[in-house]
Design brief:
The chain has nine helices and seven strands. By secondary structure, it is an alpha+beta fold. The chain folds into three domains: about 90 residues, no CATH class; about 35 residues; about 140 residues, no CATH class. Helix 5 packs parallel to helix 8, helix 6 packs across helix 9 and helix 7 packs antiparallel against helix 8.
Amino acid sequence: MVDIDTRTLDLGRYFTPAEDRHAEYVCIVGAALVQQFFPYSDPIGQTIRTGSLEFTVIGTFQKIGSVLGQDQDNFVVIPLTTFLKVRGARTSLTLEIKASGGEKNFAGAQDEARVIMRTRRHDLPGKDDSFFIGTSQSYIALWQSISGSFFAVFVMVSSISAVVGGIVIMNVMLVSVTQRTREIGVRRAVGATKADILRQFMAESLLQCLIGGAIGIAMGFGCALALRTLTSFPASVQTWVAVLGLVISSTIGLFFGIYPAHKAANLDPVNALRTEAG
């Protein structure tokens, strides 16, 4: 445990081989329990009770903090033989194993551990393991798989939102064209070309999407700042993501603004003036 545990001992000591061998009722506690039970006294040598059992504190760990809002300092560590004595020898366990010799012996250590575990658990030849060996690579692969699934879902939801937003922009621009028929007719009558009308409505559509995109990016930065300030979640917004959001919103505005802009540009000025006047 001394060689493998990534936590740092603050006070006291780890278990001795004799304490583990004889299943002694000793423990090492996290910083949260020290703060809760022994805020003004030395915890070493003190007794804590869990259920009907009493354990003597022989050490404490330094504060770790919270991860995703979960307190990582609220725990008690007891010897393995003591745990098996209390919970039963058939209780499922997670064993932390460190291979000596670095990467060179890592694969060999996994094979050796797999052979021992299959023998102890009586796994028949050709059958799958009744246990799981997790390495840093396997956990990274699992995280990449999970994050990839979340990314795919986010992309799908964002795409649907983009299409819906584009349809809304198109409808707004169509209403604008209908309500401004006389304005379009007057502009055409005084010399504005179809290209001028087209550029005008395309620019208005683009401007609406840019404003909406800027508001969305500001809300994203605000949410990230709130999460980072109020929780331990390391939320942040990358600059390239914000720029990409503006580019996508601009593209949506241009694409869905084409039809209303063409409809406005193709209006006959005489009919447009006559329709508004009537």
